[in-house]
Design a protein that fits this description.
By secondary structure, this protein is α/β, with parallel strands linked by helices. Helices cover 32% and strands 22% of the residues. The two termini are 12 Å apart. It binds NADP nicotinamide-adenine-dinucleotide phosphate (NAP). NADP nicotinamide-adenine-dinucleotide phosphate binds next to helix 4 and helix 5. It comes from Bradyrhizobium iriomotense.
Length: 340
Amino acid sequence: MKAFVFERTGDPNNVLAVQELPEPKPGTGEILVRVRLSPVHPSDLHIMRGRFGRQPMLPATPGIECVGVVEALGSGVAGPAPGTRVVLLNVWGSWRELILSPAERVIPVPADLSDEDAAQALVNPVTAWVMTMVEHDLKPGDWLAQTAAGSTVGQLVLQLARSERFRTVNIVRRRAQVPDIKALGGDVVITSEDDDWGMQLATASEGKVLSRAIDCVAGRTGATVARHLAPGGRMLVYGALSSHRQTDPSAFEMPVFAPRLIYNAAAVQGWYLLHWLEVTPLDDCAAIFAKVLDRLASGALRLPPAKLHRPQNIADALRDADGASREGKPLLDLSSWAAD
Ligand SMILES: NC(=O)c1ccc[n+]([C@@H]2O[C@H](COP(=O)([O-])OP(=O)(O)OC[C@H]3O[C@@H](n4cnc5c(N)ncnc54)[C@H](OP(=O)(O)O)[C@@H]3O)[C@@H](O)[C@H]2O)c1
């Protein structure tokens, strides 16, 4: 069986290699899955560079989500039956032909869901769902402020806003994005290209109970949003895009304005999917994952288009994941190895 492996951390182009490994056999309570597609997320690059919040033991295989087909069941496992299309709930190392998973982390995929969407159903869609529907518990009529509204997570949040009828104040960094976010249903859209965008946010906040926010930009942008939280408000910081490729440590700093934080008794809190998956009972995680899969299958949630890459073209996939490619999420077609 072929697998991508890195034995040390560093530039993904230098540390990643293809290795021939023995075919794994499912043990008690395990399921063997033949991987079809696995995305190249920025977090995979952070992991190979040794900069992620959770690092695997080395040598390791990248890939934190995938879609595949059940190949074989270990003893004591009743199903899903071989041949069933499945996704895995927080099982790492999916850039390989065959992967072992604890049986309870193997979730069948609805028939109507494409492989492309199933392969990327966990990291961004579950993040969007949990932050809005669980952590912030948004109800119809509530307001949510978000940064990088044009990101994949941001667009999913806008779709949820439509279906769950909460309202959004959106911040984007390019003026050209404003009409797109409005077309997606954003109620208020502000661009940080405007020098006075903080004032615009203050004006937009008037008369609204802007007590919930999510931010994946951090730096001055996130701090400005925190400043406009309503009394008792809470902002979840889930990304730090200000520090491009995590190479500018100063951009990780958030100059939060203390008096507003104190007098408003507001909170700025980190949010990390992997932490949430670790502290939440597995049944609850699986139930939310299944709900998100159903929404994707019905078209109630839609992901931006993806771009398939053969494993031989890994350099292109890494480049697309690292840069500002607009061609779609890079997906590794690991089933194509078998055909070679
Ligand atoms: N904490 C967690 O567990 C968790 C889970 C999932 C995702 N995330 C994080 O969420 C963020 C978004 O992920 P994604 O996959 O949705 O992103 P994505 O689809 O790749 O989109 C990135 C977006 O961010 C914008 N952007 C990039 N740098 C920016 C900056 N310095 N200031 C303002 N906007 C900027 C881009 O705008 P342009 O269109 O102008 O380029 C683009 O709209 C990432 O930081 C990711 O690591 C975190």
